[in-house]
Specification:
Distance between the termini: 28 Å
Low-confidence stretches: none
Radius of gyration: 23 Å
Number of helices: 15
Mean pLDDT: 94
Number of domains: 2
Oligomer: single chain
CATH architecture of the largest domain: 3-Layer(aba) Sandwich
Shape: globular
Helix content: 40-55%
Order of helices and strands: EHEHEEHEHHHEHHEHHHEEHHEHHEE
Bound molecules: guanosine-5'-diphosphate, magnesium ion
Structural class: alpha/beta
Strand content: 15-25%
Strand order of the largest sheet: 2-4-1-5-6-7
């Protein structure tokens, strides 16, 4: 999975990027920094920890999220220029400033709800320009026959939503309907999450600037809203592991920022994990809910999908109870499933295939 961070300059995007990836990229104390960053965030998962303890593999691989940090967008600028950087992102995370930091020259009172409206307007207008241009071109017929099936219909629907100042994603398009839009690098056809980046007191008290308004906004649109303090949380990540929990608890959060973001993103994007285990490797794989066993095999290697025969499946909870494949088998908890089996969150899978 890939997520792209978008926000106004100095909202803490790069700080949040560092919190997720541990990359330590330089943050900016001034607007107009034009660097972008790509990094990987490891998705913490207690189930992987447990399986790794149990199987003692040579290698343990957690799920990963690729994070793209792009330069800040300003009202009337930037969005068109940077859209290409986020073309492959599966989701956007909109970062809103809920802090002041006079030392960094950020003294203006935060207005995250206003920032969000401005950003959304900018993204919507940027997308509208792209969609209109494409529709015009289709109409001029210069490239007659070059339209993809369903392209004109979906462009019209997108245009109509954008003119109503709604993001394209609000149309609830099916993956098939959305496909012709993929090449355009639209911002608003992607699902998005909202992150309010605030100071320690805001996070602790659950009363960050604008939090109430944003909560209502997010709730009405079924959008996840996360409150973080990127700066302090990043400092906490630099402490020895055993000291972190106490500091996080003091901020009033139970888990590191990356865990909270991953949880919200998985739920919002309808993603689940299955696991492969063995003495060589314990590994988490990310799939969409509803994926069949055969498609899930294809995640690992196309040969496994092509040569799929069957799959041995154990639920994670049963593994926690029984702690060995031998006992699971004895109790009839090791199932053999076929290609159309719908993989469940936490399934431990062993594919049988033939190439
Ligand atoms: N007080 C405070 N300062 C922050 C927080 N997050 C970021 N900053 C500071 O704000 C400035 C801009 O942050 P940066 O991550 O570069 O913002 P970006 O322009 O959106 O990438 C830097 O000086 C950061 O140290 C925060 O949660 N609290
Ligand atoms: Mg930055």
């Amino acid at each position: 999975m890939k997520i792209g961070l978008v926000g106004l300059p100095l909202s803490g995007k790069t700080t949040f990027f560092n919190l997720l990836t541990g990359a330590g990229a330089a943050t900016s104390a001034y607007a107009g920094q034009r660097e972008s960053h790509i990094g990987m965030a490891r998705v913490p998962d207690a189930r992987v920890d447990f399986l790794s303890e149990l199987f003692r593999p040579a290698k343990t691989t957690y799920a990963q999220i690729q994070v793209l940090d792009i330069p800040g967008l300003t009202p009337r600028g930037g969005a068109a220029e940077f859209a290409g950087l986020l073309r492959d992102a599966d989701a956007l995370v909109v970062i809103l400033r809920g802090f002041t930091n006079p030392a960094a020259g950020i003294s203006e009172e935060p207005e995250p709800m206003k920032d969000l409206s401005e950003l959304m307007t900018e993204l919507i207008l940027t997308d509208l320009a792209v969609v209109e241009r494409r529709l015009e071109r289709l109409h001029k017929g210069k490239k007659a026959g070059s339209a993809l099936p369903g392209e004109e219909e979906v462009l019209r629907a997108a245009k109509e939503a954008l003119e109503r100042e709604q993001p394209v994603v609000s149309l609830g398009l099916s993956p098939k309907e959305r496909r012709p839009l993929k090449n355009y690098g639209l911002y608003t056809d992607k699902p998005f999450l909202i992150v309010l980046n605030t100071h320690g007191e805001g996070l602790r008290g659950g009363r960050a600037p604008g939090q109430e308004e944003l909560t209502a906004y997010a709730h009405a649109r079924h959008l996840p809203l996360l409150v973080v303090c990127a700066e302090l949380e990043e400092e906490i990540e630099e402490l020895p592991v055993e000291e972190r929990a106490a500091f996080l608890a003091d901020l009033g959060v139970g888990e590191p920022g990356v865990a909270r973001l991953a949880r919200a993103a998985y739920a919002h994007l309808d993603l689940i994990s299955y696991f492969t285990v063995g003495s060589d490797e314990v590994k988490a794989w990310t799939i969409r809910r509803g994926t069949t066993a055969k498609q899930a095999a294809g995640k690992i290697h196309s040969d496994l999908e092509r040569g799929f025969i069957r799959v041995e499946v154990v639920s994670y909870e049963d593994m926690v109870q029984e702690r060995s494949f031998a006992r699971l088998k004895e109790k009839g908890l090791l199932r053999l499933e076929g290609k159309d089996y719908v993989v469940q969150d936490g399934d431990i899978m062993n594919f049988r295939f033939n190439v």
